[in-house]
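Q: Got a minute? One more chain.
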Amino acid sequence: MMQPSEGGERRPRTRGRPSIATAEEIDREILRAAKEQFFQHGYERTSMSMIVKSAGVSKTTLYARYATKVELFLATVQDAHQGVEEIAAALVSSRDMGLEEGLIAFGLQLHKIGAEVNWKEFERLIFAEGPHFPELYKAVALRMDEGVEAISEYIMHCATREGIACRDPRKPAAMYLYALRGFYNWQMLNGQRATHEEAAEFFRNLVDTLISSRADW
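A: Always. Here it is, folded:
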């Protein structure tokens, strides 16, 4: 099978496949290099060739995994949100926490891992180049939709367990996540990271506000 290059020429793939462990290591290195280049040079000025050089892989290897720069950027966003998905899954499967406690705990866990995945750099990239590249907005919107679905599932689970009617759990779930996103954007714009105590206060106030309108859900 032939693989396209950035200039449109066709190149044959090399024979043989790496082991699973080696393939996973290659994937991690490609995503690391892609994020590094996107953050340093921006989406528009980053080329697949730059990522190939930074990752130390061949173009054949890169294009075998990601046919376009858009696909690769989507993969970096998904990789950055992997921890979020794990937290959301743990929250949904939890049987011990109530709604208020669970939503506060979810927010604090996101705050904890936020620095590790460098969401601030993603936000800067989206703000700077999103207007010119709609695919960047679409990538973030997709992850937000998945987050809303996970939180709405937890809200419905709590409502069912507590015997409380809930007509549309997606509405409070969306409000919760949009407020959370605004909290992180505020930190980015102010060039500072909230302390654990500040984050805890924010999430308590946010959840209290949401719960106060629970009868309308």
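A: The longest strand covers residues 2-4.
Q: Perfect, thanks.
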